[in-house]
Amino acid sequence: MKYYQCPIIQVSNQERLLKQWIEQFDFPPTPITSFVVISNPSCMIQVDPGDKSTNQKVIHGHFLPTKIEQQLAISKKQVLSTKEVQNLAKIIIKHHKIKPTLTLKQLNINATELLFGVQCSNCLAFPMQSIHSFWNCPTCHYKSKDAHIPSLRNYCLLFNETISNKEAREFLRVPSTNVMKRILTSMGLQTIGSTRSIKYNLYPLINLTSPSNRDIIISNSR
Fold first, then answer.
1. CA–CA distance, 29 with 202 (Å, rounded to integer)
2. Is pTM beyond 0.85 here?
3. What is the pLDDT of residues 180-205, one digit of tens each?
4. Cβ contacts of residue 127 below 8 Å, gap of 6+?
5. What gap in Å lies between CA 194 and CA 187, rounded to an integer?
6. Which of 170, 188, 195 minimizes the C-alpha distance to 180?
7. Helices H / strands E in the chain, number of each
8. How far is 129 from 172, CA to CA, in rounded Å?
9. Selection from 35, 28, 29, 30 nearest residue 14 by Cα
10. CA atoms of 175 and 178, how far apart (whole Å)
């Protein structure tokens, strides 16, 4: 049997912090209702029958739509205008940060099982070649200027949030140091360190577009 920190206290703290965060953008006091949702349908929720507050706060996942409908019926007063809701949504999206969690260790994958290089988005072949500021596919002759971005996004997810020129050359299979430097500097990435120890921050690539399933191709050999 496992025991966890009280989820009700945890979600109440999150509710309070979210309200404070919204207020800093000069929105009127916004009511927020939080629930502890148990996703595992076989998990038993045992609560003292007299504890009505916990019974209302802790629910199974399948009951969440009903709870939302109940809250909408109770809270009929419109606090934010449609325009304010849209502005708040934009602010939340702008400040949202995705923490990379897809690591090789979690997936139990050895780095030698990965296909290195830039993948062609047209025919999915590996690797594309960097020629005169374009990525060229030797298989289908497709050309792209930004085909390296999905590969660098994968590097961020699988290996590290920063990358050096040498690491990028090995991962993208680009032999030239100068070509790799041009590619990385043209992306406007924040740099860490200087001269030979310089590294480029890949984290902003995570928020550009969510990686698709076909971005990561695994093989038995490189």
1. 36
2. no
3. 999 999 999 989 887 778 999 988 88
4. 115, 116, 117, 118, 119, 172, 173
5. 17
6. 170
7. 8, 8
8. 9
9. 35
10. 9
